[in-house]
Fold this protein.
Amino acid sequence: MITSPDADLRKRQWESLAMLVRPGGHLLVVVPSLESARYVAELDATAVGLSQAAEPDLIRRTDTRQRDYSRAELRRRVTQQGLRVLSLRRIHYPWGEEGLERSASKPPWDWVCQARKTG
C-alpha cells in the first residue's frame, strides 16, 4: 500500500507501480479511505487522529502516520500514471480493525481500484 507520509516517496512508489504494468495490463490497488477515516473519527475521535498539518490527508493510527486517499484523489493518482480506472469501490472491514465495537453502523472501508494501462 502506498501510505508513506513522505510525499516524494509516495510519488516514486506510484510511478514504480505503474511501470510494472504492461500496456493493456491490469492493476489492482487497495488504499485506505480518507472518507472512512473521517467517518470513524466522527463516531469516536480517539480512534483516528486526523491531521491538522499542511497535509490534511495524513492520518494517525496508533503510533504511525499514514496517507489516506479520497475517492477523487485515488482516481486522479491512477489516471496520472496512464491507467484507466475500470472500477473503484469500497471494500469493508470489521470495526475491530479500528479498535471499536460497533455493529449497527455501516463498517469502515478501504478503496479498491481496478485499472488498465492504456497503450
Remarks:
- The mean pLDDT is 87.
- Residues 7-117 form a domain with the Rossmann fold fold (CATH 3.40.50.150).
- The longest helix spans residues 7-20.
- The chain has three helices and six strands.
